[in-house]
Amino acid sequence: MSAAVGHGTFRQCMSWLHTWAGLVLGWLLYFIFLTGTLGYFDTEIDRWMQPELPRVDKTLSQRQLLIMAEQHLEQVAPDTSRWIVNLPSDRLQFLLVEWRGKSGWQDATLNHRVGEPVSVRETGGGQTLYAMHYALHYMPVVWAYWLTSLAALFMLVALITGIVIHKKIFKEFFTFRPGEKRRSWLDIHNLMSVLPLPFHLMITYSGLVFLMFTTMPGVISATYGLGQGNKDRFFEEAFADTFHPVAADIAAETISLHAVLADVEKRWGENQVAVIDAGNRGDINARIKITRNGYNGLAKGSTLTYDGVTGQLLHSSEDQALGSAAQLRELLINLHEGQFAGVTLRWLYFLSGLLGTGMVATGMILWAVKRQKKAAKNVVTARGLLLVERLNVGAIVGLPIAIAVYFWANRLLPIGMPGRADWEVNMLFITLALCLFFPVFRPVSRAWVEMLFGVALLYGLLPFANMLLTERHLGVSLLQGDWVMAGVDLALLGTGLVFALAALKMQQRDRVFYARPNVVVDDCRAALE
Questions:
Q1: Which among 225, 154, 158 has a CA at the least distance from the CA of 193?
Q2: Cβ atoms within 10 A of the Cβ of 186, count?
Q3: Which of 325-338 are b and which e, b meaning 16 or more Cβ less than 10 Å from the residue's Cβ?
Q4: What domain range is 376 assigned to?
């Protein structure tokens, strides 16, 4: 009995669990993987979507840039309680100032040559795409966190059960059987699953840790008790922040931001600052927090906190570490986001994310391929397959189309249009909805080909539209060595080329995914009639 369970029943159960764990939230997982993968270049996408931004003048010191930023803040927000200055870094290629007034947060991007604001188009940028992979859109954030966590949990189950059911997983990794339909898709699925398997496990588990305070509130309540007050007490103890003491409501003159820069440079050297955050300005409890550029290994850059009235150093993050549990959580989150990574490692993150996206997509296709023969004999199964195979086309190709339309909207919507950034996102989701409906009216194989050609054109033509609509196109960026703008344009061209090759390949093979592409549809329609 035990042998049967060990060699037959148990693996069959794991296979069933693997199949349905992947199917139930497969399309959501695909959305999460693709938008999250683009997030590894969110800052670069931000810059491409605001072509008005000037290139950084690297001959200027951070002291000069900070003086410019502070002069602008003194002009537009002299009495506000908080200022933030984001200095140019390797990825953030502009000088950004933010301030919190009575009407909320405001910001301005400064031309660092003259210290005046640059008029840039409103856009969601790469940050909005990245936020979609955990906050989704058009729904309360808490609901999105729960749904994303559920998808990550299903993903973790699918990964573990996939390892269990594939006894020869590493042998199958080196196997590819072209032209055998089901086996070919299985081999591609295995390749995309096994090659970046450590990445898949890390990204899924760390994603669950990322949202654990939403999905596992009982762990906090069991120790600290119920109620928001006890929850706040937990966060104060677990993530003690010396930077934000409560304002004392006692007026005091806050020192200039660059007054502490000499001490910072003595400790870190010149041009090492990423962010300067001045809180409780005009109050005796004023604080100035300096964050160092870059990462210390996997940990975020060091911080120094100064008294905003006297300029005395109050706290250094290097002298006071978080607790072990908080350090582990921070480590996992830093691994998940990959912000510490240099260019090469970030590309590895990006490619691993694309393989994860392909793993989910091929898993959904494989589910449909496996049920083709059975669907031809069973109307109920045919109905389910009819739905899944069309959703596969609409979701797998439709999401890249929708993201391309998001980029097109950035270039085509009027610059001064109210709610412009929101409409970029609206265009993305309107397009995705249309793409989900399109395959209903076309044979499956034709829908794949037509939509693949569509996405190839959308991406391939974007750099040429950029050339007509802006001054920051390939002809300029390549000559100036501006590899951020040029890199995005070249990536768009490459994406269009890949999709064009895929469309041509599928067009050459009349039986792209199914041995009899219209049998399921015809049988199901005949039965329904």
A1: 158
A2: 21
A3: eeeebbebbbbbbb
A4: 371-529
Which element (helix H / strand E) includes 52? Answer: none
Indicate if 501 and 425 belong to the same structural domain: yes
Contacts (Cβ under 8 Å, ≥6 apart) of 341: 40, 348, 349
* Secondary structure class of 355 (helix, strand, coil): helix
What mean pLDDT do residues 368-385 have?
A: 67
Please tell me the predicted confidence (pLDDT) of residue 240.
Answer: 60
CA gap 163, 15 in Å, rounded: 10
Encode 446-490 in three state secondary structure.
Answer: HHHHHHHHHHHHHHHHHHHHHHHHCCCCHHHHHHHCCHHHHHHHH
* Structure token pair of residue 213: 């305070």
| pLDDT tens-digit series, residues 32-61 | 999 999 999 998 999 999 998 877 667 778
| DSSP state for residue 98 in the 8-state scheme | E
Q: What is the pLDDT of residue 105?
A: 86
Q: Indicate the pTM of the whole model.
A: 0.85
For 491, the token pair is 């990536």
* Residues belonging to the chain: 529
| Residue tagged 């996939």 (tokens) | 162
The 10 Å Cβ neighbour count of residue 1 is 6
Backbone angles phi, psi at 421, to 5 degrees: -60, -40
Two tokens at 316? 């250094």
Same domain, 379 and 500: yes
138 part of a folded domain: no
Q: What are phi and psi of 417, to 5 degrees?
A: -65, 130
Q: What letters, b where the CB count within 10 A reaches 16 and e where it falls short, cover 345-372?
A: ebeebbebbbbbbbbbbbbbbbbbbebb
Same domain as 376, residue 316 = no
- Domain assignment present for residue 147? The answer is no
Going from the C-alpha of 472 to that of each of 294, 406, 421, 466, the distances in angstroms are: 27, 18, 20, 8
420 and 478 share one domain: yes
Q: What letter represents residue 62's amino acid?
A: Q
